[in-house]
Amino acid sequence: MFDGFKILLLNSLHILESSLFEEVYNFCNSDGELQKTVFKYKGFTFHHFNTSDTILMYGSFHKYWNDGVHNYNNFKYNNFLESVNNLVNTFSINPEDCILKNVEYGVNLGVKYDVNKILDCLLLHENKTPLKPRKTDYRFEHQQYHLKIYNKSEHFKLICECDNILRVEVNHKRMKKLNENRIYNLNDLLNPNCLNFFNKQLVKHWNNILMYDYTIDKKKLNKADISVLKDYQNTLYWQDLKPNHRHRPKQRLKRIISENSEQIQQYISNEIQQTLKTNCVMIND
Fold first, then answer.
1. Helix, strand, coil percent content, the chain, rounded in steps of 5
2. pLDDT tens-digit map of 243-262
3. pLDDT tens digits, residue range 62-76?
4. In sequence order, what are the residues at sequence separation of 6 or more whose Cβ sits closer than 8 angstroms to the Cβ of residue 131?
5. Close Cβ partners of 146 (under 8 Å, ≥ 6 residues apart)
6. What's the pTM value of the predicted model, to 2 decimals?
7. CB 78 within 8 A of CB 1
8. Residue 204 burial (CB < 10 Å; 0-12/13-18/19+)?
9. Positive or negative CA dihedral for 51, 53, 54, 55?
């Protein structure tokens, strides 16, 4: 579901007079002149620059729903609607004045496989090799979006009914695709039809990953396939291989996985779609 946001607030300077903010920080330049004031409320920060009539809002409606404490539990679309309506009513903000600048959309999955082993199997996404900012995080950076996959349970050191939680998330860094689908502001996200776009993007990007499968039963393989797997499971092999030379080894790896493994990637794809159906509205063509 929806998580992190960067939102440009128009016509909303009145919120700066609110007494509800939990913390307020002033930032000055070297001459002592006020440059920016930051206001905090339940996990959201509101940045007002001294020379501007606008406010930038950063934060997570998921975390807001949990009083700013965490965002690792289930968060249904109805919870998102409640959170948005609560926030805009609290500060008397018009949702149409909340211009989207950055939107994160993803799911938390309690999976039956070791999450860190899954992460180590991620090789390519649309010919991009992964960045690894932290041991339990993988990120594929594209111009319009970032695909982030990480161990959510490691982030919060969870001890719960299922502490093996995989997070799959698309961070929309540019609004071109959203705008093409008539998604411009927070009010547009209150219409469940918008989920059609976000759901399809999430499933598509996961399915487009090239992923090694550590459940491959090598006893079933011939010597040639066993030999190539030594390269295929190595990220450096794919990184050094020119993009126009990757098609055949990709197809060979996918065949080996399809015929000789538990097909973890397909399992997770199914889990993503089931979670979307359970926690929001899954809209089909």
1. 40, 25, 30
2. 999 999 999 999 999 999 99
3. 999 998 888 777 788
4. 138, 139, 140, 141
5. 139, 140, 170, 171, 173
6. 0.89
7. no
8. exposed
9. positive
